[in-house]
């Protein structure tokens, strides 16, 4: 792996050599986690991405301003349906939360032998990090994350980002230091014609 620019192929080789089957990609919203996950699974047989967004609670079950930073995440459903089965060598099965319809939607099946990337903020929270074989944290400056969030969700979503999501994510980082527990810390602020370019900040040998 290059000392500066992330080599996706080299990272795949490292994960394969270490027999990593459950990999977390964590970071604040807009940092580049989804892009990294897509880059990693492209052309990789049996690699699957599971999004933390699929495990949020319906609106009726959410706290408007939760005291706990990840209170609106249905962690139990993630653990019971995905992490525990895969960790024990069994296939996983879960329903995706549909943000537009505000309901649980179709079922997804994950083979027991899949290489699984769980992508999303809070994926390496204290209650979850023990399930993973390898953890990645993606850093990115506040202004760029907000810009990306508004480009994705539209200008009306700015207030939610600024007043709810970003403060909750900051409380998460300060309380649980997921970056300090990551095997690989990346800078997701780089850009090129082909998309986001990731830089290696910290790489911990395993």
Helix count, DSSP H or I runs of 4 or more residues? 5
Radius of gyration (CA) equals: 16 Å
Structural class: alpha/beta
Straight-line N-to-C gap: 14 Å
Low-confidence stretches: none
Secondary-structure element order, N to C: HEHEHEEEEHHEE
Look at the structure and give the mean pLDDT: 93
Largest sheet: 6 strands, mixed
Percentage of residues in strands: 25-35%
Q: Give the beta-strand count.
A: 8
Widest sheet: strand order? 2-5-1-6-7-8
Helical residues, percent: 25-40%
Rough outline? globular
The gist of it:
The protein is α/β, with parallel strands linked by helices and 206 residues long. The protein has helices spanning 8-17, 33-41, 75-87, 142-153, 158-176; strands spanning 22-27, 47-51, 92-98, 103-110, 115-119, 134-139, 184-192, 195-203.
Question: How would you characterize the overall build of this protein?
Answer:
- 31% of the residues lie in helices and 27% in strands.
- With 206 residues, it is α/β, with parallel strands linked by helices.
- Strands 2-5-1-6-7-8 form a 6-stranded mixed beta sheet, with helices on both faces.
What keywords describe this structure?
206 residues; alpha/beta; two-stranded antiparallel ribbon; 31% helix; globular
Write the layout of secondary structure elements.
Elements: H1 8-17, E1 22-27, H2 33-41, E2 47-51, H3 75-87, E3 92-98, E4 103-110, E5 115-119, E6 134-139, H4 142-153, H5 158-176, E7 184-192, E8 195-203
Parallel strand pairs: 1-5, 1-6, 2-5, 6-7
Antiparallel strand pairs: 3-4, 7-8
């Amino acid at each position: 792996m290059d000392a500066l620019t992330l080599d996706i192929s080299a990272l795949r080789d490292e994960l394969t050599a270490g027999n990593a089957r459950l990999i977390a990609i964590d970071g604040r919203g807009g940092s580049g986690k989804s892009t990294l996950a897509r880059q990693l699974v492209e052309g990789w047989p049996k690699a699957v991405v599971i999004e933390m967004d699929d495990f949020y609670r319906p609106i009726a079950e959410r706290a408007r301003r939760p005291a706990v930073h990840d209170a609106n995440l249905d962690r139990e459903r993630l653990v019971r349906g995905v992490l525990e089965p895969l960790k024990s060598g069994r296939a996983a099965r879960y329903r995706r939360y549909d943000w537009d319809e505000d309901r649980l939607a179709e079922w997804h099946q994950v083979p027991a032998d899949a290489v699984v990337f769980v992508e999303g903020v809070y994926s390496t929270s204290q209650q979850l990090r023990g399930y993973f074989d390898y953890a990645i944290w993606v850093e990115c400056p506040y202004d760029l994350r907000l810009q990306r969030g508004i480009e994705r969700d539209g200008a009306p979503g700015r207030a939610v980002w600024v007043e709810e999501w970003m403060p909750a994510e900051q409380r998460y980082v300060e309380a649980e230091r997921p970056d300090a527990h990551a095997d690989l810390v990346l800078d997701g602020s780089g850009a090129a014609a082909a998309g986001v370019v990731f830089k290696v900040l910290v790489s911990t040998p395993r």
